Amino acid sequence: MAEPNVPDSEISEVFPGVHVLTRLLPGFGIEVSSTLILGRSGAVVFDTMCSPHDLGPVVDIIRSEGSYAREENWKLWVVYSHGDWDHCLGTAAFAQFRKPDCDRCVVIAHEEAEKRIREETQKELEELRKTEPGLVKDAAIILPEMTFKEEMSVYLDGGFGPEGVDVEDLDNRNARQKRVCDSVSGEIRLIHVPGHTSDSIVCYVPSRNLLIAGDVAEDPLPSLGEPEHLGKWVDFLETMADRVKLVIPSHGKPQGPELLRKNAKYLRGLRGKIVDLDLVLGQLNSEAREFYWKTHRQNIRCLSGSSTRD
Ligand SMILES: [Zn+2]
After folding, report:
1. C-alpha 83 to ligand 1 mean position (Å)
2. How are beta strands 210-214 and 105-110 bridged, if at all?
3. Which segments of the chain does DSSP mark as H helices, in order?
4. Residues paired with residue 79 on neighbouring β-strands, in sequence order
5. What residue intervals traverse the membrane (predicted)?
6. According to the model, what pLDDT value does residue 2 have?
């Protein structure tokens, strides 16, 4: 289903109405993902990867699912987990839902993302056009049109998925058939969790016990950029580990909440200056191992104040 010019790309439905698209980042040995949540009254896309070509399968699903054409007030909420280049450069894929053709798409991010994208991501994109032109083919900077500081919610009225099915009902066929969702069941909460970057946010779907984590959780270890927020970041990971059943990181496979505990343990270890890196890295291919070994070294430097990010 993925476009042939996007190698090593795949999309899977991890929950009814929740699709995760991944692609390999060549030269890094890791993958990056974008998550689509479909509802009857609209859809949420969390992160737009590196190029509009990455998102062909997501656009296909939105168009083929049909509520876009049926529902008069249908809306597409595009959310940036943060302003790093691998998370926000494919938004032009949704041009058909945006002005001037139509006005059904709004881009949301944390209030600090706009400045970061304008100043840092723009430069990174220019560099990538020279070093990895295929990766950022037709990529464009599209700034957020709606921002928030601590937390905001988006509501997909009628619940999730084409049928508006809510998670409690998935094991119960009768309930599923009778299901009429109330508006709260479609709540999608966007929460500011700085630590990786100042503008990092997550997408928490309470009714599905689902956390779409951006780079706030990463497999096998997260990248620290804002050491002053380390304590709150760890607290958040530990709190959410008791609340959610499925975690979708931007780098790593969808998995259980153990990832949050593992990341929290790693960050605590970083602060306490004792990390068993072999245990943390586990079984990785050599390219990914090298990438995360460097990330770990960078985290130590960041914490000791000598550098924040490369
Ligand atoms: Zn990233």
Report:
1. 9
2. unpaired
3. 56-65, 67-70, 85-88, 111-116, 122-131, 173-178, 230-241, 258-271, 277-281, 286-303
4. 46, 108
5. none
6. 42
- The CA 196 to ligand 1 mean position distance, Å, reads 9
pLDDT for res 284 = 84
Predicted pLDDT of residue 178: 38
Separation of 258 CA from ligand 1 center, angstroms?
A: 20
| Residues paired with residue 75 on neighbouring β-strands, in sequence order | 42
Total Cβ atoms within 10 A of residue 35: 26
For residue 86, the CA-to-ligand 1 centroid distance in Å is: 6
Here the tokens at position 265 are 């343990």
Q: Note whether 62 and 76 are within 8 A (CB).
A: yes
Under 8 Å between Cβ of 89 and 53: no
Compute the distance from residue 158 Cα to the ligand 1 centre, in Å: 32
pLDDT (tens digit, 9 = 90+) per residue, 107-146?
Answer: 999 999 999 999 999 999 999 999 999 999 999 999 999 9
Quick one: 273 exposed, middle or buried, by C-beta within 10 A (0-12, 13-18, 19+)?
exposed
pLDDT of residue 180: 37
Domains of the chain plus CATH, in order, are 9-303 (3.60.15.10)
| pTM value surpassing 0.85 | yes
Alpha carbon of 227 to those of 33, 66, 220, 281: distances in Å? Answer: 25, 45, 19, 21
- Which regions of the chain are under pLDDT 70? 1-7, 158-185, 306-310
With contact defined as beta carbons under 8 Å apart, do 129 and 136 qualify? yes
Report the SS3 class of residue 112.
Answer: helix
Look up residue 56 and give its amino acid.
G
182 is written with which tokens?
């109330």
Q: How far is the CA of 102 from the centre of ligand 1 (A)?
A: 30
Do the Cβ atoms of 121 and 88 come closer than 8 Å? yes
Tokens standing for residue 246: 């499925």
Q: How far, in Å, from the CA of 201 to the mean position of ligand 1?
A: 12
